[in-house]
Amino acid sequence: MAATSGTYTRSQLPPPEAVLDAARSLLDRGELQHHIAISVQRVLIGFAVGASLGLLLGGLVGLSGAARAALAPTVQAIRAVPSLAWVPLLLLWLGIGETPKITLVAIGAFFPVYTTVSAGLDHVDPRLRELGRAYGRRGPALLAQVLIPAAAPAVLSGLRLGLAQGWLFLVAAELIASSMGLGFLLIDSENTGRTDILLLAIVLLALLGKASDALLGVAERQVVRRWS
Prior knowledge:
MetI-like fold, mainly alpha, single chain
């Protein structure tokens, strides 16, 4: 209704059929599926790296008061750095290949996972810790067999937040000398005045983010049901 009422010009807000036509054109040329595949690959690799580091460091901080005192203030300070502020530094350190893009997505995924895991472990019932130690569980065994299952809802919520944050950081990541991906498509369409492609990129980012969150939500329900 907004696109056809005359309030906005076609260049400002193209109607839905124009966005669909842009999608068909890009699909026919084989470009759209390539952009989608590249972006999904970057998010999945970056999320895997960032979430793994978040689980490890969050577990360490959640289990050790000394680690919390030494690391938590610095990590929280780094967390406040905006995503775009990392771009020039990553370019300087890592060049213009895939590494800085995946690193930026990993940074985005790391902090929600770290925060929820460390907070979840810190709030686990102390009696569970005592029970695990009474059965000979120490260190990694205590973490994997007692504490992580107890903190499973918080851990899985952190993973979902990390995945969502990874998609948010993707566009900033694809500003780094990129020639493919949905973030590149978004920026390139802005520069060329193709609002139909710009809206298509936004819709695809939203759909992919929602689909990946839904898949992780299914896994979350299965795990919680198993451990509850």
